[in-house]
């Protein structure tokens, strides 16, 4: 009998790969009818709600001891505010990657999307059944969303070979990245919780899913609720 043993090996990123932690921003301020959110480049830009600031602090504590080579945010302030506690702990200045901003929701921008979701509006039902955002009048076409998200991830990977970065971004974008990486239905990964952490390892020819919607730091356990966009 041979004494040789072959243990299961731990995952090791391929040479030159970029390990990307995708952090969904903390809960943002509630939408109020007749008081639309301020817009940035036509997109709603709410600040974090008090609960979202708690999410940000817990993300900061969760990732404070991880080796992170860079932090990225979008041009929407809920990501910058969520990244702030971790940036302060690590002494890193977040860089902006505008093309990882949230899906443009057309006529449902400014907070109206949340109201339509709560009402189970027929347009929202059709959006989910067809897997396309642009059933909403004026919303971003699926092909445009995929193109800008894939381009942004490609740029970050090219800039950070053999490094780990944290990207503070949005639920629709995380869903799109996971869909690209896994080959899933376009909206199969919607609903990441506010403050959750997902992870992909990106090489020139392959995106590897390592985790989705990790909420261990949020004290919600397996009961942590998913959240709508914006």
UniProtKB/TrEMBL annotation:
Coiled coil (UniProt feature): none
Any Pfam family the entry gives: His_Phos_1
A GO cellular-component term linked to this record: cytosol
UniProt superkingdom: Bacteria
Molecular function GO terms recorded: phosphatase activity
Listed Gene3D superfamilies: Phosphoglycerate mutase-like
Protein name per Swiss-Prot or TrEMBL: Histidine phosphatase family protein
Organism this protein belongs to: Saccharopolyspora karakumensis
Lineage start: Bacteria, Bacillati, Actinomycetota, Actinomycetes, Pseudonocardiales
């Amino acid at each position: 009998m041979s004494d040789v043993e072959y243990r299961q090996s731990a995952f090791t990123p391929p040479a030159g790969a970029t390990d990307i932690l995708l952090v969904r921003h903390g809960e943002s301020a509630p939408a109020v009818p007749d008081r639309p959110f301020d817009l940035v480049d036509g997109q709603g830009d709410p600040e974090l709600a008090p609960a979202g600031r708690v999410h940000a602090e817990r993300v900061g504590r969760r990732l404070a001891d991880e080796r992170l080579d860079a932090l990225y945010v979008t041009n929407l302030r809920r990501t910058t505010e969520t990244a702030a506690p971790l940036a302060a702990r690590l002494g890193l200045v977040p860089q902006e990657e505008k093309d990882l901003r949230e899906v443009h929701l057309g006529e449902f921008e400014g907070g109206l999307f949340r109201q339509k979701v709560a009402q189970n509006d027929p347009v929202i039902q059709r959006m989910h059944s067809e897997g396309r955002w642009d059933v909403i009048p004026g919303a971003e076409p699926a092909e445009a969303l995929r193109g800008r998200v894939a381009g942004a991830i490609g740029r970050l990977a090219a800039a950070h070979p053999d490094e780990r970065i944290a990207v503070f971004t949005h639920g629709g974008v995380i869903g799109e990245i996971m869909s690209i990486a896994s080959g899933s239905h376009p909206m199969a990964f919607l609903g990441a919780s506010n403050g959750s952490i997902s992870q992909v390892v990106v090489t020139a020819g392959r995106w590897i899913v390592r985790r989705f919607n990790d909420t261990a730091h949020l004290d919600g356990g397996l009961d942590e609720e998913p959240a709508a966009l914006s």
